[in-house]
Amino acid sequence: MIDHISLQVANVQASASFYETLLAPLGARRLLEFGDFVGFGTTRPTFWLGPVTNEGVPRETHVAFAADDRAAVTAFHDAAVELGTEILHAPREWPQYHPDYFGAFVRDPDGNNVEAVCHAPA
Fold first, then answer.
1. How many domains does the chain have?
2. Stronger pLDDT, 52 or 107, i.e. the higher one
3. What is the pTM of this model?
4. pLDDT tens, position by position, 58-67
5. Residue 72 CB neighbour total at 10 angstroms
6. Residues spanned by the domain of 18
7. Calpha distance 10→88 (Å, rounded)
């Protein structure tokens, strides 16, 4: 249903560096730079970062990235730890969502809630 998503960030290059490290365990990488925008994905850019274009306080956004397996969720978490980012939830099962839901949640440099999730059984 969703083709792509873009987050407005305070510092595009700083956030791009953060996401390069964070998304590598999920198989995603920086694929395209277009002016002030940076696109990430596996085969085409589906996750974009761009500069803040309005005034005011941005609202927290939640973005969940698909992981092929639980090991990739754990590697995503480990990459976040290496970056020194705030860990919201270490990797674990979330049975309230469904029995095989395994996710980790971290905070990006702009305060967004970023998740890696695997829906496969252990």
1. 1
2. 107
3. 0.91
4. 778 999 999 9
5. 21
6. 5-51+60-118
7. 21
